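#lab-general

N.A. 3:47 PM
ok so I finally got the sequence cleaned up, no stray characters, all 117 residues accounted for. can someone with queue access submit it? mine expired

B.Y. 3:52 PM
send it over

N.A. 3:53 PM
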Amino acid sequence: MRQAHHPEVGEFTLTGVMSALSDPIRVGVVRVLADGRERGWGDLQAPVAKSTLSHHLRVLRDAGLTRTRQEGTRCFVTLRRQELRVRFPGLLEAVLAAAEDEDVGHQVSVKDTAPPA
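B.Y. 4:20 PM
back already:
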């Protein structure tokens, strides 16, 4: 995999971020990542094909919402919360609160990776 491009904070645009957040699956991914933990792509569960989920993750990355890191054959994603706060103060919190209130993106979750007891 070639190195993914991550826009600098000054390259974030309001229309780019809002466009990326216009899809419920992408909002769901942001909601999952809002806990601050890095997640493996394979740990994310959504009611779409893997290729479609990959597309959604790329849209989020290209808009500046997420950062992707490759480790061997695995890819990990994190929310760029601090960078978004710098560029658009309060926007992410408002989006997350509205998504919670309207239950947008509820269909995206994380696989339970805990070992069986």
